[in-house]
Specification:
Distance between the termini: 42 Å
Largest sheet: 2 strands, antiparallel
Shape: extended
Number of strands: 2
Strand order of the largest sheet: 1-2
Order of helices and strands: EEH
Helix content: 25-40%
Number of helices: 1
Oligomer: single chain
Structural class: alpha+beta
């Protein structure tokens, strides 16, 4: 089991896997779980407020709308790199 204090002791993660910790570039991974839970602590809410909560919820909607990896092409051509409508 690892104990990871990040950043500057504001989070402590106890986990047998290192996938939850920050990674270097080129060390990508994909969570393979059907449901990802998240929450906001008091410091997040005080700093970002309801706009921060809405932004995180919006980002989670994007992640939840992605199809299964097995349904996507190997070159991800269904997701063009150009800027699309927001």
């Amino acid at each position: 089991m690892y104990e990871i204090a990040y950043p500057a002791n504001s989070w402590i993660l106890f986990t047998p896997e290192f996938t939850y910790a920050p990674h270097n570039l080129q060390e990508e991974f994909r969570w393979n779980v059907p449901v990802l839970y998240y929450t906001f602590d008091a410091s997040f809410l005080e700093y970002f407020g309801s706009n921060g909560v809405a932004a995180v919820d919006s980002a989670m909607r994007i992640l939840n709308s992605l199809p299964k990896a097995s349904d996507m092409s190997s070159d991800l051509s269904e997701f063009p790199l150009g800027r699309g409508p927001l």
